[in-house]
Design a protein that fits this description.
This protein is of the alpha+beta class and 342 residues long. The protein has helices at 6-17, 25-34, 72-94, 156-169, 200-206, 222-235, and strands spanning 42-43, 57-58, 114-123, 126-129, 134-137, 140-141, 172-176, 188-193, 211-212, 248-249, 259-272, 276-281, 285-290, 309-319, 322-326, 333-335.
Length: 342
């Protein structure tokens, strides 16, 4: 009796399949079924249904069925073994682990976190829970709603209404904490997720309702938030359609600019102090990086920036008769180019 080669072939294929990513299953499984040996003389042709007797092409088509040939018991045995092996192979393929570095959504958080209920939305980046805790959404900043006679910033009400709408439909949320659980105002810091796993901060950034706020060490979803911001900028969505949020050369600034801006300019000199690195641009504008944040600028030769053109994004304020912008992470500083999305 000749031994069937199918078990060895399937075994070899199983070893190879162990290295296949789960997303490739639908590409490989049809190839397995296309080359199933129905008997020694019969093959299932490509594209044929495996359970259709009429689709089996045999070397001896005059034979009514496989099981009417000589040695039918042997063939039944081999065919049953084939089915068992293929069933085992399918089990292996559909239970392969997902590789962490391939096709993994950078905005998801799995099933971890604390379940909470939203009671009230204060503005686009702050909510109150049913247990009265105030939660500040990590990684984003939305325009301020005016208080004490001060006008609201453009986009403030739109951001609040957007957040109210999605939370009204899903008052039960999941809080994902980062390295720090509280800010200096004793507000709880968290990433917010809806029951369907939607990242709330990512949704706000994607719609242009918020700007990214990268503050170490709370960097768990930085890549996600940068990605969504880039998409919104490219589409000029929401805030990114307003003049204030367009890149501005520092030589064209008049000194009255305040708040969030994207600025570009040439570096005149880089100075150091005990506490900070000072990147002085033309037109009396300075970028400040505290020494405690230098680990978040790895790979960037700050001492060699003189003469380079840079683009920075953040909040402008007036200090010692000069406009200053503090940077906390390298995602907010681009050299000889533009910030992703612009």
């Amino acid at each position: 009796m000749k031994k069937s080669r199918l078990p060895a072939a399937v075994g070899a294929f199983s070893k190879h399949a162990a290295h296949i990513h789960r997303n490739s299953i639908l590409r490989y499984v049809p190839n397995v079924t296309r080359f199933i040996r129905a008997s020694r003389r019969s093959w299932i042709p490509p594209g044929a249904l495996t359970n259709s007797g009429v689709n089996t092409a045999c070397n001896h088509p005059q034979d009514p069925t496989v099981f009417q040939q000589k040695g039918a018991s042997e063939r039944r045995f081999l065919l049953s073994v084939n089915y068992v092996l293929l069933a085992q192979l399918a089990t292996v393929l559909f239970t392969l682990p997902v590789r962490a570095d391939v096709d993994q959504d950078i905005c998801t958080a799995g099933s971890r976190g604390e379940i909470a209920t939203i009671k009230h939305v204060i503005d686009g980046d702050t909510v109150i829970l049913s247990d009265q805790r105030r939660v500040r959404l990590i990684g984003i900043d939305t325009p301020e709603i005016g208080h004490d006679g001060r006008p609201s910033e453009p986009g403030a009400y739109q951001a609040r209404e957007f957040l109210r709408k999605i939370l009204a439909q899903n008052p039960s949320v999941r809080l994902i904490y980062d390295q720090e659980h509280f800010d200096r105002y004793n507000r709880t810091l968290a990433h917010l997720f809806l029951p369907d796993a939607t990242n709330v901060q990512a949704a706000l950034l994607y719609e242009g309702m918020a700007t990214p706020l990268t503050i170490p060490p709370n960097l768990q979803f930085t890549d996600c938030y940068q990605q969504k911001t880039g998409i919104a900028i490219q589409r000029r969505q929401g805030l990114w359609s307003l003049p204030q949020y367009q890149p501005m050369p520092v030589v064209k600034m008049d000194g009255t600019e305040r708040g969030y801006h994207i600025i570009t300019g040439q570096v005149r000199r880089v100075k150091e102090s005990r506490s900070s690195i000072w990147i002085q641009l033309e037109a009396n504008v300075t970028l400040r990086i505290q020494r405690s944040d230098l680990p978040y600028f790895k790979g960037m030769n700050l001492d060699k920036l003189a003469g380079e053109t840079v683009q920075a994004r953040g909040w402008l304020s007036l200090r010692n008769n000069e406009l200053r912008m503090q940077l906390r992470h390298l995602v907010d500083l681009q050299i000889s180019g533009t910030i992703p999305g612009n």
